[in-house]
Structure of ATP phosphoribosyltransferase regulatory subunit:
Amino acid sequence: MSLEKNSQYLLEKKRKEMDFLHRFHFLGYDLLDLSLLERFEWDRLSEDDLKMMKSRHIWQAGDSLLSLRSDWTDAIVRYRKKYKLQTDKIAYSGPVFPMDQEKMQFGMEIFTDDISRQLSTMQDLLQYIKENLALSLDVAVISHYSLLKKLLSKSERQNSEIMQYLGERNLDGLTKRLGDSHPVVRLMSQPVPDQLDYAKEYFPDLRKPVEEIQRWQDQLIENNIRVVYCDLFSIPPQSYYKGIFLQFYADYSVEPVLTGGQYSSPTRAFGMAINLSSLFLKTNVQRGKSS
């Protein structure tokens, strides 16, 4: 890529960032910018903190553990709790540094358990992507993180072999380990398009999360998402993710362009982020070929 093309690319990214912040501030979101550097105290690390350290860039300074920001939601939750912020709608932009990569994200968080308001914020992001980024999201994957707690016992969820089989969608391994009458095995044995209806009919405890999935699924269909795929066996990356989780893909993307979901830490909330690394992938490839 030539220096001139690189300059134009950089200016375009900065323009998009300003456009995003202006648009969401106009829509009533409070804007938040946080330091890239996060500080942790050894004696206050939670189980989630310890788990996430494996995917963070970390180093020790005195009695503190320092890390580059690897997740916006986690950073905002910490900041909001520490300073007792009363705002219920936040928009942000900036990089995150999960292990071995850098991602630029635009995102929002809403701190409410009102599903209608959560759906409205998702609509704000989808509309922004369509109008300002001229991007068509063709595929959505929808999960519900409360399902595993209802399908597996605590000891089963703590079993690394079972969780590995679940992550791999290894039906044979799960059948051997759990038995063919286990709810997970019975549900996974059904054709994917039939799993929601099967869960609703044969597992009364799953009726509420299934109906929530269907409500969000209907909203996605209204937004002209061509393919909506339900994944009932997703494993949450952190324990505070409790409910609906969404991933959106464009026709060329191997990584999700838009991700987010419902969580509780310490209050019910919903957040989503646009992954600009995926968004600009096609553009970069095209520019690379023409340079």
The two ends are 5 Å apart (CA to CA). Residues 3-35+88-286 form a domain with the BirA Bifunctional Protein; domain 2 fold (CATH 3.30.930.10).
